[in-house]
Amino acid sequence: MKIQSILKAGSGTIITAVIFILTTPKIFNDFGVERFGYISLLLVLFSSASLLDLGLARGVTYFVSNNKIKNKTSLSIIWQVAYFLLFWSLAIGLLAYILLTKYFGAMNNIPGYLQLELLSSTTYISLTFVFVVMHSIFRGVLEGFEFFGITSVIKVVMASFIFVMLYLSQYFESTILYSAQVFCLVRLLMLLVMVKLVAARIRPVFIYKWSDIREIVAFSWKVSISSLSSTALNYIDRFLGGSFANPILFGSYSLISDTVMRILFIPGAIGGVLYPSLSTFEHENNRQKLQKATLYVVISIVPVLLLLNVFGQNLLKYWLSNDFDNINLSLYILVLSIGIFFLSLSQIYYGYIQGLGFVSFTARLHFIELIVFIPIFVIAAKNFGLDGIIFIWLLRIIVDFLCLFLYKNIVMGRERLSE
Questions:
Q1: DSSP state letter for 323
Q2: Where residue 177 falls among pLDDT bands split at 50, 70, 90?
Q3: What is the mean pLDDT of the segment spanning 109-131?
Q4: Which of 278, 370, 388, 401 can bridge 380 by disulfide, Cβ–Cβ 3.0-4.6 Å?
Q5: Is the pLDDT of residue 126 over 90?
Q6: pLDDT value at residue 324
Q7: Helix axes 359-418, 329-355, angle to 10 degrees
Q8: What H or E segment, with its residue span, contains residue 25?
Q9: pLDDT at residue 281 tops 50
Q10: Helices (DSSP H) in 50-146: which residue ranges?
């Protein structure tokens, strides 16, 4: 758990956040609050799409971490995993097209022109899903080699292209369709870059044998269940908000959520370094690594969250030159801040548990949470609107934190007994 590795892993997101801060006021004003809400929803969809990789990004990271020194020749297997994932991603893209067409077509609470823009964007959104899923596995390879600086640079370049093109939308068209086209093009270019970087380190092979990759897939699918379920529940406030909330209210909340949720880059960077560190089967000082990771998260995010709650409402109004009439900004910031605190700690415990190979527990936990909480979310959305959604969102995150905390203690107890 080197500080340098954490800084490299997080630097890309820090610079991305700066770009977001500088460009968002103009993007917000050019597209309008209603369109901005749905552009934010697309960004959430794309960030979540990487988790549709069947967990293979994490599986490949685990595999590369274990074999990059003791068995380098076996690393060529990752190309076979990539071919397998290509067929899967194409299926995901087709499914996304079908489901999104129905989802956007059922949005009766939004103006017709917005619905038309969303429906006309479906093809580009679906193609972007394919590129995002493929991108995740090559990022997983680089993280297995602990090339966090490279992945950060890619993240910065990608964000720069996206936000700059949205910033310049007045010279093209400030529509959701234009945004979807930008997302699609940038993701394609970044995928090609990632393929080139991995090919320079692991020589490509042009064979495919299921027996060669079966072990990696068997490990990864459990990771996938956990990742998909937890991410769906973490971002369900956006999906249900887009369907049940007033577009202006939803757009304003999406902006606040986008801004506050960017703090998650801190536990993301720390957890991203912790996971491959634990996946090497060199289990010395695992408890110390976890304690350090937890301490780093607490001392880095608590001051930021406090500042957000004290000054966030006024800063947001000043930043965007918007009064946000009749919108309870302080409540949304408070609920999101509490949720992010527990979610940040959960990410560290999640990385610790999975890094030691206990992927079955997280898979079962998050699948059960998905089954239990989805009906509760829908009931809350129908009866209490956006306020009901975000309070159930907070409850789910706290429950998840408690379960991971307790199981983390069990894992630590097993380690003590084995010493």
A1: -
A2: very high
A3: 90
A4: 388
A5: yes
A6: 64
A7: 60
A8: helix 3-49
A9: no
A10: 56-67, 77-105, 112-120, 122-144
- Write b or e for each residue in 244-261: b if 16 or more Cβ atoms lie within 10 A of its Cβ, otherwise e: bbbbbbbbbbbbbbbbbb
Pick the closest to residue 264 from 341, 195, 199 (CA basis).
341
Output the DSSP codes for 231-264: HHHHSHHHHHHHHHS-HHHHHHHHHHHHHHHGGG
Q: What is the pLDDT of residues 138-158, one digit of tens each?
A: 888 888 887 777 877 887 888
What is the predicted pLDDT for the residue at 223? 67
Structure tokens that stand for 280 in this block: 């090497």
What pLDDT is attached to residue 175? 92
Q: Is 215 strand, coil or helix? A: helix
**DSSP for residue 281:** S
> Which residue pairs from 299-302 have beta carbons closer than 8 angstroms and sit at least 24 positions apart in sequence?
300/266, 301/263, 301/266, 301/267, 301/340, 301/341, 301/344, 302/341
The whole-angstrom separation of Cα 163 and Cα 121 is 18
Q: Give the C-alpha separation, 26 to 321, whole Å.
A: 10
CA atoms of 157 and 155, how far apart (whole Å): 6
Q: What is the per-residue pLDDT for 89?
A: 92
Which pLDDT score is estimated for 320? 66
Place of tokens 């899967």: 88
* Rounded Cα–Cα distance for residues 260 and 34 (Å): 19
